[in-house]
Sequence to fold (1056 residues):
Amino acid sequence: MNQIRSALLLSSLAVALPAALPVRAQSIPSRAYGALRWRLIGPHRGGRVLAVAGVPGDPATFYFGAVDGGVWRTRNAGVTWEPIFDTQPTASIGALALAPSDPNVIYVGTGEAAIRSDITYGAGVYKSTDGGAHWQSLGLAETRHIGKVLVDPRNPDVVLVAALGHAYGPNRERGVFRSTDGGRTWTKVLFKNPDTGAIDLAADPADPQIVYAALYQARRTPWEQYPPDEGPASGLYKSTDGGATWTPLGGHGLPAGPVGRIGLAVGRGGRVYALIGAKTGAGLYRSDDGGATWRLASSDPRLTSRNWYFCRVTVDPHTPDVVYVPNVALLKSTDGGKTFGVLKGQPGGDDYHELWVDPKTATHMIVGSDQGAVVTLDGGRTWSSWYNQPTAQFYHVVTDDAFPYRVYGAQQDAGTAGVASRSDFGGITFRDWAPVGAGESGYIAPDPLDPDIVYGGDTYGGVHRFDRHTGQSQDISPWPVSTFGVPMPQRKYRFTWTSPLVFDRVDRQALYLGAQVVLRTRDGGLHWEAISPDLTGAAGRAATDTGPTTVANAATRGYGVVYAIAPSPRAAGLLWVGTDDGLIHRTRDAGGHWQNVTPQGLEPWSTISLLEASPFDTAAAYAAVDRHRVDDFAPYIYRTRDGGAHWTRADSGIAPQAYVQAVRADPVRAGLLYAGTETGVYVSFDDGDHWQSLQLNLPVAAVRDLAVHGRDLIAATHGRSFWVLDDLTPLRQLGDSALGAPVYLFTPGPAVRLRRSVGNDTPLPAEEPHGTNPPAGAVIDYLLRAAPPPSSGPVTVEIRDARGGVVRRFSSDDRPTPPAEPPQIADEWLPRFEPPTRTVGLNRFVWDLRYPPPPAARYGYSIAAIAGQGTVAEPQGPLVLPGVYEVRLGVGGQTYTRSLRIELDPRVHVADAALEAQLRLGLDIWNAMAEQHTLAGSLGSARDQVRALAGRSLDRGTRGSLTALERLADSLARAAGAAGDELAGLETVVESADREPTEQARAVFAAQRERVADAVRRWRQTLTAELPALNTRLGRQGASAVRAEEREPETMTGPW
Fold:
């Protein structure tokens, strides 16, 4: 075994994590971990958008609202987008509208109203009066889901809201609401019953007092994928007084009913379009007399496909015969709705929801779809991209064991993604993620024995095996027959939209899939076997009643499915299984025997959204229970410590309506838990007894799942893509000792020896979407109970090697070195300067694992730059060798020390001797540059002094000697400077890869070192042989001596 790797193994005890002492969880201040930061890794692939708008007459400015990603704005017609709603407590956007009389006034209705099974709720209406810079809540929080906001074109204070209300239960805060004072107060002006809400509004552009409204009766059940299409209370209404009072419209050509969702649009001349879903007579209806009479313009089934999900209609603001209907494709008619063609749509179905047409220039449009929002400025011939919106809706997250590890998930409406957690090129771009061959809603399960094989779930139990080498995806479903449209109880295997698919954590060949039973394959899906009986509420219970399906009898009728599977990481054959109808079972012999361990009192259809087997105790487990599908939004986490015999609620501290989707246990620190809720992430330090926010900089969004990989926590958001919280060291080591000390230096985790970026091509422009890489280097965390007073000196961080030599020293007083010349790059590309901080609470500093930059007359800017994160100045110092180092933190005259282990990139296979040779040459170059830099200082000083004597009256001989001295200094400076420039470039060449330096590099170094040495010898000879006599003559003539004192150059030594 070679010496470097031996040293790593022998030093493992020295860098073991100190045990975190007991901590009073309720007293942990957030500042103790407040310096931690989530980073977005992507993918930048848009998620579902129901709300879009633009500024009339402005071809550059548009807005969209993502269903769980907040409000976004573009000022360049969709080239880039920026979030403008992230400070608000909700991210689900159902509607938005700009006031036509003042586009700086924006109203946002929160809570999407396309009530599919993955919806999240809103918090009422919000308003901005400055174009989205600031927001205020206007109430109506209990409406939960808002379908439309309509602003009076003459008065921005007059606004109507179509509120659908609760999706899973009755409530009275639904219908149409009206405000005449900018949202300060609201009046409910149209209400039918607690099961019926409003879904759309449209006003006559010639007379905004004439308004049409659509009511929609719809109630979701916990077990159905889709809501009902029709309801007897659904219908069409008209107001002639700006929405103050309403009259129902029926008959006169409208379908008799019951009807479903209705979409409305009013064009010039009072032309009204109503897109109506109905069992009989569905289609696009048209009225040319203000709704008095109607006729069916088109019964094209493409217009009302999945009408509960789509059902919008938009009319051209100038030509009422031009009408658009977004559905699976974006459809357009130019003959008043009689016939339609596809304006935009591709195989697979983009699923369009809302179209806004600029009333001043009708060729300017924005459309929202399941894939995001896109803009056209040419009437739909070309569109902007939706691959620049990090609003992906992921259901679950899992990682593989590659390096860098990959993050996998299924994205609603789009497909799958495997995203690199780190890019070698500094930022995570489209080059760093790819689909992995499964469907939009399932789990992903990388093969633990072969990271190039990835298994993925699909809707209703489909399973695929993806081979990264070939790109092939084989369908290995247990029963590869489509069950779309087949009632759940009639299916061979009862699968839901999202079925659990997980590998056993001990028996790494066993892959489990949840139906009404647990299925297992041990040969990559070639064969499946059921290892359990029916584990749902239908087991052994035959439904005898013949009435409607209800919460009370749905399980016995066969609607329940296995929704969560949690294999133990400690014991072979130990599995915990939960169902969506509220049951938990456990087996200790890989399915030979099963025990019902459901928490006592858990009500039907309390969905076991996720189970977590303890990584420390085979009798302990955690259950995330989601009851929002029975209209209960409270958080529920259950904990057992005795194999499920008894369960305890463990969710204190989580916000009242933040229902829980996931709970995960930290694999290093017992009792450290993480929870993903509908509004964000929480952490518990005491096994769930108390929780506190871990939101930090993470935008509000539903967090459907969490994964811990090494020292990282990964969040699968359902509206803002994947995020990673790097290096959990402070959370794992926080304890009374850390919180009670005036200064506490955490033991840093091992750092992998990597380059910030290896790019040699022109950097991607800032407009190209990209995620953020993890910190490039060793992460050093320290707590300060109080800010050190200025009189105590700076905070310092010093790195020492194994022999005690100083490798690097940083100070909070450090200041950036200004460039020698004006840069030719924009400020956003300049190097970032981040010295140690002295903030109360947690401070995080990153050392780049390098020696200091060598002294140089000028530094260049590396082409390996990262948009928004700058570049580095070159030449950089050499990378240190793998091994054990010491971190010294200096605060207030006290020194605190910890060990730090640096590991070789696991992808690199190189002999220790090669790395040592590389470092020796790098440090030799460093020292040669230091010698040249010192010489340059001496030469420059001498030249300046000589030039200062130019005006003095001196004899000819003295003037000649001064001229000769100046010429020599110039000549030596040029020669040594050229050598210094060559050495600077050579330093970058030598450090370009983890490999022994080439013989050519050594030859170049020898030549340039000799040039520097020659210049130093000649200058020293001049200083000793000629300068004293010159200074004597200068003194005799009353002139100042030329003082060019020789200084010893700085030197840098390695760990040998």
Observations:
- Residues 87-249 form a domain with the Neuraminidase fold (CATH 2.120.10.10).
- Helices lie at 3-10, 729-733, 736-740, 912-948, 956-990, 999-1025, 1027-1036.
- Residues 912-948 form the longest helix (37 residues).
